[in-house]
Design goal:
six-stranded antiparallel β-sheet, five-stranded mixed β-sheet, 18% strand, binds adenosine-5'-diphosphate
Length: 421
């Protein structure tokens, strides 16, 4: 991912997060406010009905103004202009709360004007329908009122929160989404940093390796062609060795660094129509000749297997997989390359009977620089770039690559090449 895309994703993501948080907070705040108003409205109706009940019982009229007063968000005083019987008051409160479906605990106190005392009534639990004395001890007095009772709803917040449970769940999910997004961003940024470090490292290595190799090339060329050296057979031989080995090293370094620099989208293909069977046969023959043994076998149906592919990259791909098949087979070097028709697809498979790959490593072997940790048992050299390159070649051709492997039984790498017509 390029820097500017990451910056844009970061910016838009942060904007989206801020937007979500603002909308969620506003939405929650509004819902809470609405529920609070709803609660207040219902409680006013309840208390008015209770007051009416008491006035009927006492046969006294209710005051025209200021019947209900609210102290804090959950304490109300009701002015009834007459004596209040605590038992009747409690019954009425229960009845009227049930009528409006508010099942939240309450406690009440009745003002005694003779002793100027607010006499605590009861703490009434809805869930158990039981009452407990002495829960909230002190309810506030209301000046300027003579006959009144005070009701307190201690669980008002909890009641509203319960009613908002769906909104709270949604808000929680939104927070989870935000956290998940932030986590993803951190992972992306970390990976980006790692890949930048890798790139810097490869660029430095390119410079550090290539400069001395080029100098050695010039110097060894000069030495090799120098008359004094040419006259001495032994010296000429050593000079040639230096030159040849330097050439070999240069091409190795070039190859490794080129693959290390390779990204999925940086491979350019030159597609031609070719016969896969012919190509595989020529590679396998060359390899068997080099190995001086028929270690690699071919299993193939008759006929041609025409595909569209970049010959150079396909050749490298086959060599890489064959190299691995031989490299990771201890003494049991027995490799089979098969080409078969699978419906409209062509299946190219390379099977060995080597050390195999543990299950947990199978997914990672195509990553850049990944090598299976084999401890000290198998001292096989490599850079962890062969299969990375193979995967890129497959991706760019639109082929699918699969690996099946079992430790100590061998590995089979299959490439599915879709219909080429
Ligand atoms: P390397 O240069 O290490 O061989 P590759 O990218 O070609 O890098 O392979 C990655 C890793 O996958 C290797 O280090 C090896 O552990 C494992 N591997 C690949 N092919 C085989 C195979 N045929 N059998 C066993 N292990 C294999």
């Amino acid at each position: 991912m390029s820097k500017s895309i990451i910056r844009k994703v970061l910016f838009l993501g942060t904007l989206a997060i801020v937007g979500i948080i603002v909308v969620q907070s506003y939405w929650l705040y509004k819902s809470w406010d609405l529920k609070d108003q709803e609660f207040n409205f219902s409680i006013n109706i309840v208390l008015r009905r209770v007051a009416l009940g008491i006035s009927k019982y006492n046969n006294t009229p209710l005051p025209k103004k200021n019947l209900i007063q609210r102290r804090s968000s959950n304490i109300y005083a009701v002015n009834v202009n007459g004596q209040i019987d605590a038992g009747i008051l409690e019954d009425l409160l229960y009845q009227e709360l049930i009528r409006v479906s508010i099942y939240t605990d309450f406690e009440y106190a009745v003002y005694n004007c003779e002793s100027d005392d607010l006499v605590y009534g009861n703490y009434c639990h809805f869930a158990e329908k039981t009452t407990h004395k002495n829960q909230n001890k002190l309810l506030p007095k209301f000046d300027k009122l003579t006959y009144y009772f005070v009701v307190h709803f201690p669980n008002r917040q909890g009641y509203i929160a319960n009613n908002l449970i769906n909104n709270l769940i949604l808000a929680f999910l939104a927070v989870l989404t935000v956290l998940f997004f932030s986590f993803s961003m951190i992972v992306i940024l970390r990976q980006k940093k790692q890949s930048e470090l890798q790139k810097d490292f490869i660029n430095n290595m390119t410079h550090e390796f290539k400069t001395p190799l080029a100098s050695i090339k010039i110097a060894s060329e000069y030495i090799k062609n120098n008359n004094t050296i040419l006259n001495d057979q032994k010296l000429a031989k050593y000079a040639n060795i230096i030159y040849d080995q330097n050439e070999r090293l240069s091409s190795q370094v070039e190859r490794v660094l080129n693959i290390a620099k390779l990204e999925n989208d940086s491979l350019r293909l030159e597609i031609t129509k070719l016969d896969l069977k012919e190509l595989v046969e020529s590679i396998v023959n060359d390899e068997n000749l080099r190995l001086q043994k028929q270690l690699i076998k071919i299993e193939c149906e008759n006929g041609q297997f025409l595909i569209n592919a970049d010959e150079l990259h396909l050749t490298n791909l086959i060599y890489n997989i064959l190299d691995n098949a031989l490299k990771y087979s201890d003494n049991n070097k027995d490799v089979t390359v098969s080409i078969t028709n699978r419906g409209n697809n062509i299946l190219l498979a390379i099977q060995d009977r080597g050390i195999g790959i543990p299950q947990e490593d199978l997914k990672k072997i195509f990553e850049k620089f990944y090598r299976v940790d084999t401890g000290d048992r198998h001292d096989v050299k490599g850079f962890g770039l062969g299969l990375y390159y193979v995967k890129i070649v497959c991706n760019n051709h639109g082929w699918t690559i699969n690996v099946e492997s079992k430790p100590n039984f061998g590995t089979k790498i299959s490439i599915i090449i879709p219909d080429q017509k």
